[in-house]
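Example (one chain per record):
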Amino acid sequence: MHLLVAGASGYIGQRLLPTLLAEGHRVTCLVRDPARFAAPAGAGPNLEILRGDLLDPYNLPILPGTIEGAYYLVHSMTAGEGDFREKEAACARNFTAALKPTACRHIVYLSGIANDPRLSHHLSSRVGVESVLQESGIPVTVLRAAIIIGSGSASFEIIRDLVEKLPIMIAPRWLNTRCQPIGVRDVVVYLTRVLDQPAAFGKIWDIGGPDVLSYREMLLGFAQQRRLRRWIHTVPVLTPRLSSYWLYFITSTSYHLACSLVDSMKNEVVVERTGIETVVPHTPADYATALARAFEKIDNNQVLSSWKDSIVSGTISDADINHLQVPRNGVYRDEHILPITRPVAETRALVYGIGGDRGWYVMNWAWSLRGLLDRFVGGIGLRRGRRNKDSLRIGDPLDFWRVLVTDTAQNRLTLYAEMKLPGEAWLEFEIQGETNPNLRVTTIFRPRGVLGRLYWYGILPMHRHVFRAINRFLAQPPKNRPLDGQPRVREAK
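Predicted structure:
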């Protein structure tokens, strides 16, 4: 079949695409920014990329008339950007309008379990999208899932942050709310197997694993999987605002996403609309197995996608990232150049492996302090880490930076600061020359008003010390310790 996937660069889209291509489908992906789209390995000619923003119907591309089926995987979890419910409905309307001239005979939509009569804003928006898709006249299958467990999923990473960072939790009472988690592999199985099944047309099904757990039980189950002892005490006095701040300061989520999550966690999300087993006879994995699979991917550095890859996890939009060029005028620059005395491949690997769990190689305490201060003033801090410890893609989060340029051929890495600043900042690493190569590390700052100028001159001495040390570490190997930071054993003379 010729399939359209809207939201192909998102968490589920990136997991679904390899399966669709492996099954021999021809796939057209509709994405807002092709530069940030990571095509699956070995995609070949069956994959086509179209640029289009569903909120901008006048600039949507004309879809191929041969499209026979479509996946709608577009979601918003940001509560701070106007009326996101109306935005989601508008996206769905524009999607179906673009599909009508094609040969599409089936739409599959991944929604959220919405059986509670008092739905959160987020879940009610999902139900609204279902209605818009059903009004198109094209047969629709809606799969409603609760928490999706997989390496890089928002739910998994938030649970991981809480359990691994807090031995004792004084938690809000919504931790006693029940849900029915499902592994991401099982979600992909259901998405692919309902496709083009007449028995699935017009159906709304809940999908979930075999375990019905409270959020508290999920946290403790995670702790057991990691062999950690954890104590959780729930209290009734934490308001939704305080609960949002609790998630924001402890986990890598943004405040707006924390608000949406807290709002949704008051609803029980347990499977009620059954029947999918008659069309897709599949037994989903239990919670413990889904966790084990997630950690297997993490341990093998095979995380295909992460919710943190989304621009929503930071401070810039998809539209902005395409226009964020490093300015040359009206900025302050602090540049450090050193000859490279390591093997160049070694320096390149260190540059592209910077941040995340590895840290910033020198003065990590200073980076941690800067991240903590950023969290206290409403920024994102260092907790996003990085998707992959060895490789970077355009648009990837890297602690409190966003990757703008990652060009291994030109030996250049450019990052844009998403921390709270009185201005804008960029950080560039570039290996220059071939015969006698140098490493250039440059910080660029465009101040906003007098406060921005005071900020620059106030931190300049520390900046120079930190980035001079980073440049030295990357370009020139330490004389008395190996690269892993362990003491080098000197040979006896």
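Caption: Residues 149 and 183 are 5 Å apart (CA to CA).
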